[in-house]
Amino acid sequence: MTSVAPAVGDVAALGYLSMTALEVAAPVVLVAVLAVVGAWSASRGRDLYVRLLRHGLIAALVLLVPGAFLIGWFIAFDPETISGITTTPAQQTSWILSMSLFGAGLSMLVGVAAYGLGGWVSGALSNKRRYKLIIAIDGPAASGKGTLAKRIAAHYGLGWLDTGLLYRAVARDVVVKGGRLEDLGAAIAAARAIDATTLCDPHLRGPRAGDDASMIAKIPEVRAALLDYQRTFAQQGKGAVLDGRDIGTVVCPDARVKIFVTASDEARARRRFLEHHGRGDTITYEELLADIRRRDARDSNRSVAPLAAAPDAILLDTTDLDADQAFVAAMKIIEKKVGK
Ligand code: DC
Predict the structure, then answer these.
(1) Residues whose CB is less than 8 angstroms from the CB of residue 15 and which lie 6 or more positions away in sequence, other chains included
(2) Does the beta carbon of 214 lie inside 6 Å of ligand 1?
(3) Based on the domain organization, do 106 and 138 belong to the same domain?
(4) Are residues 93 and 180 in the same domain?
(5) CATH no. for residue 284?
(6) Residue 20, domain extent
(7) Residue, of 8 and 241, whose pLDDT is higher
(8) % of the chain residues with pLDDT over 70
């Protein structure tokens, strides 16, 4: 009896050699699509992903196992049908059906494996992201979020980014180059060329710089240009604390802790007044109150990434709290979320 193995191998080899580029590309594309679908469904919810994976695997085995069994049977007991020597139409049909069953099961198994792999990779990546302690602290001007964020970062040994400084620096760079804040092109160019090493400039801290920052912060392209830097910063080492207006909603929507710090307008103006007074500035309480209200209105009413608490943010009202009390209250919120 002649061995059928070479015959099967030859047929397979000839089959692959005669495939067109499209016939080779189609399954590759299908596998890639299934991997993306797996990643997507795992990111939507573990339950759905696992259920689809389990059902897909069962369906593949239901086709594959009988197909493999029938092929084995033909190889062992009816090799003539495989090599097309002595066959009846019924034998030929059974052989083709066995091959089809096996082929469909194998294709399905490859598809399920791609789907599973996509889901696994997406799960591993999101676990890695979750492992980092990213704390989003949002709130209006002078709510005390900066002082708080700095202390929390020092407590956990995390990086700290006052994202308001980025917007302040963009406005400064526009003005320094002789541009106007209303000039969209100049603001966008400055945001794209921002140099983070210049954020320690003490001139960025004044109320004028804050008002200018609030003007250019309305421009979607300016916000988009600063997004990557903020997100990359958040992903450093063990994580980071970022304070701003849209950290919990846009910059780090996956942050493990989100705190929205508020305080009455008057309390905030009083704090700013004492700060400026201490530095010998002549600005009045009324001017600071007006500045805070103007900025709040502009930051809250803009169309992109307005000042807003994320739905899962915890509110912290610091109107009647000093810096130490606000820190204790914030630590309670954080420890409740992530443990001690
Ligand atoms: O936090 P701050 O006062 O330094 O911010 C200055 C301005 O920058 C603020 O009025 C609005 C804008 N800003 C923003 O739009 N988004 C942020 N994440 C941070 C600040």
Answers:
(1) none
(2) yes
(3) no
(4) no
(5) 3.40.50.300
(6) 4-129
(7) 241
(8) 93
Mean pLDDT of the chain: 90
- Cα separation, 55 vs 24, in Å, equals 27
Q: Is 163 in the pocket of ligand 1 (CB under 6 A)?
A: yes
- Residue 12: C-alpha distances to residues 78, 98, 99, 139, 244 (Å): 19, 16, 12, 66, 62
For residue 118 and ligand 1, the question of a CB distance below 6 A is answered with no
Residues 71 and 185 in one domain: no
Q: pLDDT tens digits for 170-197?
A: 999 999 999 999 999 999 999 999 999 9
Both tokens of 211, joined, read: 């008002």
Give residue-wise pLDDT tens across range 283-326: 999 999 999 999 999 999 999 999 999 999 999 999 999 999 99
Q: Is the CB of 213 under 6 A from ligand 1?
A: yes
Q: How far is CA 259 from CA 7, 70, 139, 317, in A?
A: 70, 63, 8, 10
pLDDT band at residue 9 under the 50/70/90 scheme: low
Q: Which of 129, 160, 185 is the last residue of a domain?
A: 129
In whole angstroms, what separates CA 197 from the centre of its chain? 26
pLDDT in tens, 20-30: 888 888 888 99
Residue finishing a domain among 129, 159, 187: 129
Q: Does 222 contact ligand 1 (Cβ within 6 A)?
A: no
For ligand 1, atom 3, the nearest C-alpha belongs to 141
Residue nearest to atom 20 of ligand 1 (CA): 164
Nearest CA-CA partner of 286 in 300, 276, 278: 276
The alpha carbon of 253 is separated from its chain's Cα centroid by a whole number of angstroms, namely 7
